[in-house]
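Let us practice reading a record.
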Amino acid sequence: MSQEDTRERVDPALQKGNTRPLAGYDARHFAWKVDDRVGRVTLNRPERKNPLTFEAYAELRDLFGQLKYADDVKAIVVHGAGDNFCSGGDVHEIIGPLVKLKAPELLMFTRMTGDLVKMMRACPQPIVAAIDGVCAGAGAIIAMASDLRLGTARSKTAFLFNRVGLAGCDMGACAMLPRIIGQGRASELLYTGRALGGEEAERWGFFNRLVAPERLVEEAAALARELAAGPTFANGITKTMLHQEWAMTVEQAIEAEAQAQALCMLTEDFSRAYHAFVAKQKPQFQGN
């Protein structure tokens, strides 16, 4: 259903309480812009390979949380400035302070980072990650939590938590990564912390496809625009079901999908697609 259709049908009081534009959002710890219904998150500390800070984690969490209410954003692109995606948590601004904290504060931090992944999975917009160069630690998690991943041959993705004395079970990695690349391959990456090269990442299914570095962000934006131009309500349902069905039996999933699909059949997108198909099937006028 288009934004115009929605505004014609929704009571203004209901819309005011449940939708809001995000094009004008002024991000403080990364770059944000909306163009042609595609929101773009740019991690923009290229001089240090775009590491995250406490503030960046919190702001990313809050932005993705707000996206469920955004009526002007239909797909998301996440990428890094320069030649790298994200090097993870900043060694000086995150790792250093963490070694001085006690358990309650450490749990506050780990829950905050996990909440970022929860918000990425809960927002209805498909997220396309454009991954070049270093994609490590929390950067690899952000890539993993995205719906689609475009990479470059020169990229290096590493879930390097065990390299700093931590478990690989960080921010949902033990639940999500095996579902993307398989249990054995995920186990290898999480136990060893080794880097996954771009071509190997594509073979393993972590990347949907490889793109030349100079075209990476453009290709990711084009894919996001294609998704934004499609049946956005239905795309949101697809994302929701892909996530929720992990915890369902096959029988439960089939019933949940039946209910979801019936709901999608009530949308203008479904009706419009049918009438467009019928119009294409009409025989062309032929003269005598």
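A brief commentary: DSSP finds 13 helices and nine strands in the chain.
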